[in-house]
Amino acid sequence: MGKKVIRIAGALCAAAFGLAVPAQGQGPALAMLDKLDTGRWEMRLREPGNPAERLCVANGRRFIQLRHPQSNCERFVVQDGPNEVTVHYTCRGKGYGRTHIRRETSRLVQIETQGIADGLPFEFSAEARRVGECAA
After folding, report:
1. pLDDT tens digits for 43-87?
2. What is d(CA 12, CA 68) in angstroms, rounded to the nearest whole number?
3. 3-state DSSP helix/strand/coil percent for the chain, to nearest 5?
């Protein structure tokens, strides 16, 4: 009986260790966002009557924290696929958010985000499209 318990314990330890080792060939986290074109982007909210926002995007990760752009926030990647990502983030003392981004092309993305910023809730869906270079 003792040897059987030791074998089972050994097998469980090996399985747990195998789960802790990252898969070989796995790319960097949120790689889809790094493949988006940099430059001037225009973001249109899906609700009528909202003016388009223009953003200078140096990196596609900028779309994660649209309502917390200057905040140093902790991020938790919920979904990380080749064409879609979902990230939950928390900005101590400033709020939090959850953003889903779907890439249609390197110049067109769909964004859904919600959370709390400056003590107030926000929620919106938008389409962002690259429209040119950033002004110097």
Report:
1. 999 888 888 999 999 999 999 999 999 888 999 999 999 999 999
2. 43
3. 20, 45, 35
* Beta-bridge mates of residue 54: 42
What six digits make up the tokens of 50? 């909202």
Spatial contact of 37 and 109, defined as CB atoms under 8 Å apart: no
Residues contacting 37, CB < 8 A, separation 6+: 106, 107, 130
pLDDT tens digit sequence for 106-130: 999 999 999 999 899 999 999 999 9
Q: Say if CB 115 and CB 121 are below 8 A apart.
A: yes
The torsion angles phi and psi of 121, rounded to 5 degrees, stand at: -75, 150
Report strand pairing: 74-80 vs 84-91: antiparallel
Q: Which residues of 23-33 are buried (b: 16+ CB within 10 A; e: fewer)?
A: eeeeeeebebb
Structure tokens at 23: 């898969």
Q: Which long-range contacts (CB under 8 A, 24 or more apart) does 92-100 make?
A: 94/68, 94/118, 95/67, 95/68, 95/119, 97/65, 97/67, 97/68, 97/122, 99/63, 99/64, 99/65, 99/66
